[in-house]
Write a structure and sequence with these properties.
Layout: H1 2-7, H2 16-46, H3 50-75, H4 77-81, E1 84-85, H5 101-109, H6 113-117, H7 129-132, E2 141-142, H8 146-178, H9 180-191, E3 199-201, H10 206-211, H11 219-229, H12 237-251, H13 260-275, H14 280-291, H15 299-303, H16 305-332, E4 335-337, H17 355-381, H18 392-420, H19 434-469, H20 473-502
Antiparallel strand pairs: 1-2, 3-4
Helix pairs in contact: 2-3, 3-8, 3-13, 8-13, 8-17, 8-18, 11-16, 16-17, 16-18, 17-18, 19-20
Length: 503
């Protein structure tokens, strides 16, 4: 009786000093995290890192979404427990094989992290017998128990936090790998002289020799080479120099000193904002993954191969795009005057859309985060020997695949994506510096506003002309007297607007 009375203690009979201490700790931790994010945002603003600042705002949005999910679970916890279903429906699609109820509960939580904290029993804030016995009195089972709601809450939080951390680590490691290209950019800038271009045979270019000449007789070898190339030296200096020159000659021919390296970094930081968030379709994947976690299927083991296969396919495709660029030049020219110029095009990418690569990388990072979050969630909640873990022979390969995929994505796929996706038909707005982007946006808004005023003026004049038809002779005469001056003003305004439109 003493144990049951202790478990059922309510707020009215809880010492105020305990409530105050717990609330103080929670508030202090929350304020510390909020201030930390605030000062990090100010630091990024001071360093003119707007893309990273936007990514930080995206992280705050994810945290706000987590808070809203937590609120929904807490508010509707009692309501969910009062949704009763037939007991026979709870026997299908179980993650663990059902045993005796007492034996199952004891085995399930005996080695969990929470059993150590609460002294061998899991005690939740809202686990009153009056609510939990509501469906039992009707001979039915609740839709979700208090324990399941609590575990689901922890899993969603762990998944979101792990995804954000993995995305940040991938960006940092990728930036560290790309940093060596900065030296290539500086050396190219120094060697860019005004010498008279000479005629060179196309096969003498290192880019053509390594990317096309070896495999021009058999196309399948080109794909095999692209597959293995992503594991070592995925981008060489000749690749960087050729793609840089092709980009400049296609999109900014008048600026041969264009810093291609800084442009790639700005574009990558802008894409990071999209990768760090959890989109609605990724939440659908979470629901599907939870649905398929059925005992005996080992579906998580097979799903863990999907991101690795996608990662290898994306890396192979990106490498093959570089080979295609070399092939296009080699097949069209036998000799070239000056530097080798490639022709960037969307035709080299899947469905002619380079953005698909970003979507696939986003999904790969999310799936890796799901594997790691699920592992630590099961480990800390139910223990390593839990039946949900799936056995050592299944969980260890999953963790290894997730870690290998994360490393490959950081050091190979992400740098490849950063440079190869610039070989599309169009460029990104990151081609302009931040202050230039802001000036262009302000200018475009003014142009749109002037266009709207001009259209509104023309519409009012046309409506006014229609009303003149039915006007009196005196009003018509007065309007005709004012027409010459109005026309002069209108012509001046139209001329100025036309110049703005041309600009």
């Amino acid at each position: 009786m003493a144990g049951s009375t202790e478990e059922e203690i309510t707020f009215e009979y809880t010492p105020t000093w305990i409530v105050a201490i717990v609330c103080s700790v929670i508030v202090i931790i929350s304020l510390f995290v909020e201030r930390l994010l605030h000062y990090l945002g100010k630091f990024l603003k001071r360093k003119n890192q707007k893309p990273l600042f936007d990514a930080l705002l995206k992280v705050k949005e994810e945290l706000m979404l987590l808070g809203f999910i937590s609120l929904m679970l807490v508010v509707f916890e009692g309501f969910i427990q009062k949704i009763c279903i037939s007991g026979s429906l709870t026997k299908y699609m179980l993650p663990c094989k059902r045993k005796n109820n007492t034996e199952e509960v004891t085995e399930h939580f005996s080695s969990s992290f929470f059993s150590v904290i609460v002294g061998g029993q899991r005690r939740l804030l809202s686990g009153g017998s009056s609510v939990s016995d509501y469906c039992a009195k009707k001979g039915k089972a609740p839709l979700l128990s208090v324990e399941v709601i609590h575990d689901l809450h922890i899993f969603i939080f762990a998944l979101a936090i792990t995804h954000v951390i993995f995305s940040v680590l991938t960006m940092l490691l990728g930036r560290a790998k790309i940093l060596e290209w900065k030296g290539w950019e500086e050396s190219i800038q120094k060697d860019n002289t005004e010498n008279t271009p000479a005629m060179t045979h196309v096969n003498q270019f290192e880019f053509i020799r390594k990317r096309f000449k070896r495999f021009r007789d058999l196309a399948a070898l080109s794909w095999v080479h692209s597959f293995f190339k992503q594991f070592y030296g995925s981008v060489t200096k000749s690749d960087y120099k050729t793609m840089r020159h092709g980009f400049i000659m296609t999109h900014c021919r008048g600026n041969p000193k264009f810093n291609f390296y800084k442009y790639m970094v700005r574009a990558l930081e802008a894409d990071f904002k999209k990768v760090v968030g959890i989109s609605w379709h990724l939440w659908i994947f979470v629901v599907v993954f939870l649905l398929l976690n059925v005992h005996g299927w080992h579906i998580y083991f097979w799903i863990s191969f999907i991101p690795l296969i996608l990662l290898l396919a994306v890396g192979t495709k990106l490498e093959h795009v570089i080979s295609q660029l070399a092939q296009d030049v080699a097949e069209k020219h036998s000799a070239i005057e000056g530097d080798l110029v490639i022709n960037p095009s969307d035709d080299h990418f899947w469905f002619h859309r380079p953005k698909i690569m970003l979507f696939l990388i986003h999904f790969i990072l999310f799936q890796n985060a799901f594997e790691i979050a699920f592992f630590f969630w099961i480990l800390t909640t139910f223990g390593f020997n839990s039946c949900i873990m799936g056995g050592t022979g299944y969980i260890i390969p999953r963790i290894v695949i997730a870690l290998v995929g994360q490393i490959m994505c950081s050091y190979s796929t992400l740098p490849l994506y950063a440079i190869v996706t610039q070989m599309g038909s169009s460029f990104k707005k990151a081609i302009f510096e931040e202050h230039v982007q802001e000036g262009l946006v302000e200018w475009a808004q003014k142009v749109r506003k002037r266009r709207g005023l001009r259209v509104a003026t023309q519409t009012s004049i046309s409506n006014h002309g229609d009303s003149v038809v039915n006007a009196s002779p005196t009003s018509v005469m007065l309007q005709n007297m004012a027409t010459p001056q109005d026309n002069n003003i209108a012509s001046i305004e139209d001329g100025r607007h036309s110049q703005d439109d041309k600009a």
